[in-house]
Structure formats: C-alpha cells, structure tokens
Amino acid sequence: MKIVVLVKQVPEADKVAVDPETGTLIREGITSILNPYCEYALDEAVKLKNAHPEENIEIVTISMGPPQTKLALLRCLELGADKAYLLSDRKFAGSDVWATSTALKEGVVNLEPEFDLILAGKQAIDGDTAQVPAETAEQLGVPQITYGVKVQIVGKKVEVKREIETGYQIVSARMPALVTMSKGSNIRRIPSMKEVLNARKKPLEVLTADDIGIDENKVGLKASPTQVARIFAPPEKVGGEIIDGSDHIDSAKKLLEFLIANNYIKE
Amino acid sequence: MISLSSNIIESEKIEPAPIDQIRSVKGEREISSSFPSYLVDESKISGGHANWLFFPKTESDFVTIFDKMRRDNHQITISAARTGIVGSAIPFGGAVVSLERMDRIFGLGFDEEVGKWFLRIQPSLSLDQINEIVKLKKLEDHHSIPPEKNWVEKFKENCTHYYPMDPTEMSASIGGTISANASGARSFKYGATRNWIKRIRVILGTGEVLDIPRGKYRAKDGEFVIKTAGKELIIQIPTYKMPTAKNAAGLYAKPDMDLIDLFIGSEGILGIITESDIWLKEYTSQMSCVAFFNNELDSLKFVDLLRNNKKADPEFIEFFDYNALNLLRNKQKEDPKFVDMPNISEEVTTAISFDLSYSEEDMEEKFNVLSEMLEKCNSSLEKTWCGYEERELERFKHFRHTVPEIVNNIIAERKKEFPEIHKLGTDMSVEDQHLADIMRFYHETLKEEGLEYVIWGHIAENHVHVNILPRNMRELELGKQLYKKCAKKAVEYGGSVSAEHGIGKLKHEYLEIMYGEEGVKQMRAIKCKLDPNCIINCDNIFSRSECV
Amino acid sequence: MLKVDYEACTGCKVCEKVCPFAAIVVVPETKKAKVLDTCTLCGTCVNACKFEALSIERRAISEEELAKFSGVFVWGEWEKKEDDNKIKKVVLELLGKGRELAEKLGETLSVILPGYNVEHLIPELFHHGADKVYLCEHELLEQYTTDGYATTISSVIATEKPSIVLYGATPNGRDLAPRIAARLALGLTADCTGLDINESRQLLQTRPAFGGNIMASILSPYTRPQMSSVRPNVFSKPNPDSSRTGDIVRVKVNLSRIVIRTKIIEEIVSKDDSINIEEAKILVSAGKGIGDKENLKLIEELAQELSGTVSGSRALVDLGWIPHPQQVGQSGKTVAPTLYLALGISGAIQHLVGMSGSDTIISINNDPEAAIFKVSDFGIVGNMFDIVPEFIKQLKEYKLKKQDK
Description:
The structure holds three protein chains of three kinds.
Chain A: E1 2-6, E2 9-11, E3 17-19, E4 24-26, E5 32-34, H1 36-51, E6 58-64, H2 69-78, E7 83-87, H3 97-111, E8 117-121, H4 132-140, E9 144-154, E10 157-164, E11 167-174, E12 177-181, H5 193-199, E13 204-207, H6 209-212, E14 227-232, E15 241-244, H7 248-261
Parallel strand pairs in A: 1-6, 1-8, 6-7, 7-13, 8-12, 9-12
Antiparallel strand pairs in A: 2-5, 3-4, 9-10, 10-11
Helix pairs in contact in A: 2-5, 3-4
Chain B: E1 8-10, E2 12-13, E3 23-26, H1 28-34, E4 52-55, H2 59-71, E5 76-79, E6 95-98, E7 105-111, E8 116-121, H3 127-135, H4 151-157, E9 161-162, H5 174-180, H6 187-190, E10 197-203, E11 208-213, E12 223-227, E13 232-236, H7 260-263, E14 272-279, E15 281-282, E16 286-293, H8 296-307, E17 316-320, H9 322-334, H10 336-339, E18 350-357, H11 363-376, E19 384-387, H12 390-417, E20 424-425, E21 428-429, H13 435-448, E22 453-458, E23 463-468, H14 473-492, H15 508-530
Parallel strand pairs in B: 1-12, 4-6, 5-6
Antiparallel strand pairs in B: 2-11, 3-4, 7-8, 8-14, 9-15, 10-11, 10-14, 12-13, 16-18, 16-19, 17-18, 17-22, 20-23, 21-23, 22-23
Chain C: E1 2-4, H1 14-18, E2 24-27, E3 32-35, H2 44-48, E4 54-56, H3 63-67, E5 72-75, E6 78-81, E7 84-87, H4 89-105, E8 109-115, H5 122-127, E9 132-137, H6 146-160, E10 164-168, H7 171-184, E11 188-192, E12 194-197, E13 203-209, E14 214-219, E15 226-230, E16 247-250, E17 262-269, E18 282-286, H8 296-305, E19 309-312, H9 314-318, E20 339-343, H10 349-355, E21 360-365, E22 378-381, H11 384-404
Parallel strand pairs in C: 5-8, 5-10, 8-9, 9-16, 10-15, 11-15, 18-19, 18-20, 20-21, 21-22
Antiparallel strand pairs in C: 1-4, 2-3, 6-7, 12-13, 13-14
C-alpha cells in the first residue's frame, strides 16, 4: 500500500516580523524547519504503517521548494518516510496556491500514480492559507477529508476523526483519498542514530519541471491567480490603563468599578 | 619565535578618579531596600549586607574605591553577574562593587603568530552577549586591533566564530568566569577558561595594575617578583601538587607556571580583572545524541571508550543515573511539555548524552565507530536519540538542564516545611582509572544511609554532581557528613574537592582536605603579599587573612 | 519576474538586507543586484529600493473580459441548532461587508444557499442585505459534504459569473473554498481581515501571515470571480432591516449519490454550550499562568459569576487541560466578544490574532512586560490567585446589595 505525504519547508514563523519603521521584513537568525502540520501528517503515516504490517505500507514524501528543502525531506526520511522527492526549479518561483497544487499534482501523477492515500498538514505556518492540499486533491480528482486528528484504514476505506466547531465527526471515504491533519503529538519524535544514518541511504531525488514534464506556463508566478501586492507590519497596539496589583483588595475593587462603569455586570 | 620570558613584572600606577564621579549608594538600609539584588547570588546564602554600593567604570575609579575602603578599614566584595553558587559575590559588610558599567568591547584582533582571533573586552559582558557579538559579527571597523590591519573587515569575511566556554549558565560574566576558571561540560574537549585567556589586566588591592600577556612572565626558582611603586614583592608559588583531574579549588601552582595562571581561578582574592583578551574559535556544527543503557556499568564502559576515541571526538559527555531518569519519567507523566522529550523505556537505567561535530561527509564513519562501541556495552545504535537542527540542539540542551531544574523545584517545595533545608550537590572529580570506583562509592554510601539522591554530570572528566535531597533536617546533617566522606575519597582517588564550582565562601573546609594546613598557609601568604590590608573578596577560598 | 534595472542600481545592498528569503544579492564584482532562484516575488525589495531599480512584471487581463463578471456572492452556510437549521452568524457578517463592496462596485449582493428544507432561512438573508438568493435544494445536500457543496456552488458560479465570492472561514468553509477554487482555476485568499475595492475596481484582500507577524495585501488580478474566506468575528453583523426583501432563484440541482464520495458515519457533538466560544459575549480566558489544572476551577467560578464562557490559550490545549474547541488563537478560533478577560496569558502574537477584535480586553498577569497589556483596555500587574478570589468575593457582595435594594 502506498501513502504519499505532501510536505513543506517553512521558516520558523515565530521569529518573522516586519520592522514597523521601514516596513520591511527582519530576517536575522531565522532557520528553516519541516512545517509542524506536515510532521503530524508524516507521524500519522508512520502510525498507519506500524498498525498494518500486512499492507507493507510505503511512505513517500513529496515537496515543492527551493534546493534547501532537501534538509526537510531528509528529516522526513529520518522520521520514517521510505522515499522522498523534491520538485525544485526556477520555473516554480512565485507560485501561489493554485500553481503549487498544479506542480504537486503533476509530481504525484508522474512519480506515484498508484497511491492509496495522501496525507498533508492542515496548513503551513508561513502562508497559513490551508488551501494547497484541497486544491491538489481536486486536481487529482480524489475525495478529501480535512481537519483530521486520527486516521484509520478499514479495508479499502479510510476513516477519519474530524474536528468540527462543536466536537468531532467520523468521516469515511474510499481510497484513493486525501486527508489533512490538524493535530498531532505534543512531543515531537526524535529519530535514533540508526534512523538518521539510514535516512542518508534512502532515495531522495531532486527533479526539475522538465524531469516531470510540467508545462512551464502552468506553474510559477505566470500561472498564479493571486499576487502579493504589499507586505506590512501589523498595526501597533496601544494599551489602556495598567495598574499595580500588589494590593489585591484595592485592584479587585478597581476592576469591579471598571466593569460596573462599562455595564458588564449583570444582576 | 621564542620570546624570552622573565619572572619579573612591573606594575602600572593608576591615578585615582574624583570620588563624586563614581556612581554610588550609601547606607545599609538603603541598599537592602532599594538594591537587594546586589546582596545575593545563586548560592542562595542569606544574610548578605553592605554599607556601600559602587559602580566603577574605569581603573581610576577602582583606585579611589580601594583608597577609601583602606582608609575606613572596610572590605570589598566584587559583584558582576552573580551567577556563582558558592557565595563569592555576596558581601558581608563593607562595600559591594558592581562591575556592570564595565561592559565595553575594546576590539578584535588576529594573532598572526599562532593564527587565532581574539576579542578584547571588559569583565561584565556575559558569555551570551559575547557570543551574540562574535557569531553575528556585530563589530565596527574601528574595533580592529590595531586599526590599520582592518581585522574586523577580514573577520566578517571569515567563517563563524565563537567563544567556546560553556559553564551551563551563559549569563555569567566573562570576568567572573576568568576569576573562577570556569569549566562546564565542554572543558573535556576544550579545557577550562584559562586555556582561552590570552591576556589580562588585573588591579591589585593596593591600586596598582599588572598587564599580563600569556607567555611573558614565567616563574623562576618557584618565585615571581612584582615591582610596585615603592616595594618589590616576592611571590612564592605554593609547593603542593595540583590534581591532574579537573580542578577549581585553590590557587594554581606549578614550579614554572605562567603569572597569568596565578590570577585566573583565584576567585578574586588577589586582584580584580579589568580587561581581558580572550581567544575565539571556529564554530563547527554540532549534533546531539543520547545513548541508553540497561546497566550503569555498561554506560561507564561506554564513557571510557568514547572519551578515548579520536574518530568520535566528542564535544562533551554527560551522565544521568537511574534516579535522574526516574525524576524525568515522573515529570513527563504530570507535564510532558516540561521535559519535551519522548518516553524513555522502562528497562533503561542510565543515559549518556554527548555531542559530536556534525558533517554529512564523515557521518557514516563516525556512526559505525559508535555502533561498535555501543554493541560492546550491551546497547546499540537503535537505542539512541539524535538531532542536529538548531531547534533539536536546543531541545537536547533543555533536556540536560531539566534534571537540575526538577531537583531545585523539589527542594523549593521542601523548604516550605523546612526553611533551613537546601540541596547538597557534590562537585568532585577523580582520575580516569578511578571512575567506576568513585561511582560505586557514591551509590554504596548513599544507599547505606537510605538518603534520596540523584547523580548527573560531566562524566568525561570523571566529574559528576551527586545531589542529596534531604527530606528533613536530620537527613541534611547526615548528608553533610557524607559529603565530607566523598570529598576525602575523591582526593584519595587523585581528584579535586571542587572541580568547577570553586571554593567561595561555602567550601573552606574542603580546601584543607585537599591541600592540608600547609598548603592553605602558602596560599594565604600570597594573599597577604598582594593585598596586605585584606580589602578585596576577603572571605573567598579561605577566611579573612590577618596579615602582619 | 523580478527585473533589475542595471542603470538605476547603485549596489547599495538595501535589497539584500530586507529580502526575507535571501534571494537577492549584490554581486561584489559588478556591484549590481542579482536575483537568485529562491525569489518568491513577494515584492519587499521593490518597495525598499530607493532608486526604483527593481520591478515585478505581472500579467494583466483585458477590461472587456473583466466586464463579463458582476455581482458579490456569499456562501450561505447554515448549521443544525437544536431541532432546526440556522444561518451561521459569519454569513450575516459577510453580508454586511458584501453590501459595502457591492455599493462601491455598483453591483448586486447575492447568497448561494445549498441545503435541504432551508427555504425558511431566506428572509433573514434579505433582512441583512442580500438582494438575491440562489436556493439550491436537494436531498443530498441535507448535510455538508465537500463533493455535494463544491459541485453545486461551482455550477452556480460558472453560470452566474459573479466578480466576487465570499466564504466564512469555518471548518467547512476552509474545506469547501479551495476545492471550488481548484475546480474553476481561481485565486482564493484565506482568512482575510480586510476587504476593500481599489482604484482599479479590484478586490484588495488583506490577511496575516507568518502566524500574524506580518500583514499581506493580496490581489487576484486576472481570474474571476475573486474569492476570499473570512473568519467569524472579523467583520461586524449589520443591523437587520425586516422590511427588506429580494429575489429568489430556484436552482435546479443535478446531483447523484455517486458524486458524493465521503460519508459521515458518526457525529460526537458536545451538548455543552460552553464549547461554542465564537458566539459568547463574555469570555474568561486562561493561559499558562494559571499554573495548574486545578486552578481552572477558579476560572470557571469567575466565568459563572460574570455569566461568561471559559476559553483558553494554545498552551492549555496542548497540556490537555481544555479541549481544542475552546482554544482562542491562530490555530484555534477567532473571537470578538464584548468582554475578553485574559488571565495568566502572556499575549503571544498567535493568541492576539484570535482575540484582538474584542470590544473590551482586561488582563491580569504578574509580568509587567507581558504583550497582552499592549492590547488591554484595563490591565492589572499582579498575582491573579490573590486578585481573582478577592474580586469574586466583592462581586458577590455587590450583587447581594443590589438585590436587597
């Protein structure tokens, strides 16, 4: 059985900020990591592999990105993927969600057309759009289940515990299908030295648009329906009254006064 | 080029600054109410007090302060980052002098003879600050020493460098680490701080300054001669033999020693460091690993193999015993994110944490060598954790500090019931061949008395911290006695009573265990020569000397 | 394509400094800027260059093509509430904003309403500003499914050719919108916090990125319709005008069972109203500062006294102390209650993004530097374990006094 995991390498979003004075991105000391939600998806794939030894599940990770994405794919191999592909080409530069999903779809169709399940992270922590997996599923013509927190394989179907606003659903679909993961383990796994070493022996291929046979007019900025017009810093917040709370009786009193004055106390 | 060294040094006379130019606070009450942080350090000893608080900026300021304190017959305690754990920075009367305004970078240079970069700084910069400046190359062209060589421009084109000392608490001041000859996990590979000091400027209790580049002044016939204005001081080097094991106890003593080493590690009793040139090192990417063993003896065997292996060439090797692992396991059950590591399986009794340099080219070779070593010790490459991304290295670092943190939290809880209680942490080292012996001794002694204890530490240098967690005052007393027993045993095994924390105000009695009455007398003699009025840091290493 | 004008370029290196992706460097030999493979055409360097030496070439679309598309559409998402279906509040918020956009364009505002037995929901849509409702009823649309709804709505869009389509960024909205975007090869911008019409009659879509650390303005210049999703509680609900009516278009829905490829086997819905924090008017929110799970009792007591609902930061969800539906923040829910009390919350940007739209924000934290104070209307730097119990005591006394009167 074959599980494809779509992954992305992202900058550590916590540290990215815009200098409010100059309106430009501050770039100091930011490292690139495997997108956390993609890691959840990979973890789920590995769980499925361990739960179904009889299926001989092969986990293939695919990513589209600049050459340094290799490091994120290497990490996937360390964490249990069997094979990795990187689609990397100048022609992909400037790709928005649509163009990215086109490239990924072409990648899947050309490299792993016999997939049973595609797992992806809910969203990437840089773009935060949460759209690429769904658009890729549409282009591949397979059903999707989003906001998954747990995946099970039952015969030829996949059963997913899905988050909704007021609780959960269990949704099933016949494979091939695509599932996005919105939650995973709190504590990230750590590979052993053996797994780190073996990762370097597993196949990791870097492919250009030509290698896959992708028409360059279908990817990159040219093919992107959305464009970034401007990047700017979020507006500076200005706080209101801050009081010293060392006298708790007095500060509680002031808080009560504030709430009464603003009509927040119901009888 | 071999420069002829001499054992004679001339001091510089520094003019005093006008006293009102020096920022100061007067009055015991004022200081304890508005500036209480200057009366404590990480040893958590209480009772610190001072009548004066000074903030000098220059050597001239020091001269003025010393003159005043000498006239009024007061002592001075130097305070910088206050991260020490033996009470060195805590004043008990007199003046506390904070070095916080002496935090300038004077410059960067390259020693063409030895091919190494160095940084010239004032004492109160922290190691974190120094590394930020060095790693991110936050220097201006005018910082070049000398300016016409344009070293800063060249440095910026060079690969990343850093200052490799890591005494665990990176907010420590550079001056403090030099005074204490700080080490830490990495001293196994890089040596202690003294290996990284190219030059110091030190101001004596008499107000005179010695500028000491390494290699210029060496002892002759067991003596140094210091020519000050008016007097010639003959310094006799102590005749005791220092242990070969990791050691931070007492004054450095070797017959042909360099003068700079007398001051490094002297815990501020001989003089105050006002400036230093520190060597920098090329930064190599690291990889963090943890290996697991079901038997402590297997792990000790692995440590011995690993530390002698040139191919593996580990940065450091840290040890966590069964009790340490159980503390972690319990904490994980109640708050997994606190530890932030995967579960450690139940059969594992010991963990060895080590860093290697990271490179894709020789990874396979290194790992094969490690695999062989692990197999010999009933473990394997599969029973390990491994990471090399920045955030993984952070995680492993955090993991190494979690055990001490949990221990501190436990003691804080127990303090609620027994306010006088505190943890007892040993800081002893032994020679390589006695590692298994001392570990066995620790376990047997403590188990016999039924005390709660945890062992972790810098095992590559046979230097582990045995932490006794007393549950009541009786256990605290018992623990103190056992502590002495351990100290004596460590010395028997060729080791030191204080491998890295120093003596400070807390461990005077252990100094005698190590060097005997005669050794301490010889150290006092040097103190009296250089600080006859006993003004500076009088209670560090040994109690206040009465100099005739 | 990012183009460098070599005549104008002075090699000043400002572009090199500001590029977030290290994708442009000044070549030392030529002292001119060079664009590398990693360029994402984000435009940061173009804005920063003082010499106007950088420019980005983008494709354009003809005016006459654009003129074929007209109308602002909103997806009318509804949900089961107790025994009946109800239009989701976010739809009404989008109608408010949609009305604004329609006025600026001089176009009409419509709602696409797929479902089964949902006709009675229509009047509310007219009351809140819709001119037209496309009612798409079919048995197979009784519950939300990706396939059923994507097929139905795509079909309406293809036929009616709106210029703008808006979706609430609810779990289903985020599931649905990209599927439709891919089906019709359109641009879609997620989680917009601002929508406006620019001078060229284009939809200017503003949204946060990098967890809220930066804001981006997005355009979909040459595909129609332009599609955006918006989180609940970002725009305000307009005041209803019960006299308003509009046109109902009954769309013939062609769906067969085989088209719908997912099946809901089970629903585990929490009966407890407290889970729906998006609708709460008063939220009492706890962060890592509460220290212990036990202390949630204090938070619950406070919420009860204020007739509010308990919510929390991501830290508490990670620890398993509160369930995910109660999480406020970037990876949780966006809320905009009239009163938001933040207790022991430091104010990380990912949290602020989820609640800064609240009318009044009050916070208690013992760290004076906590970022939450910057967005608070009233803040107390102190120990909440002393202040909150005391406050509850005083509040109870106050209520008793008022009762006695």
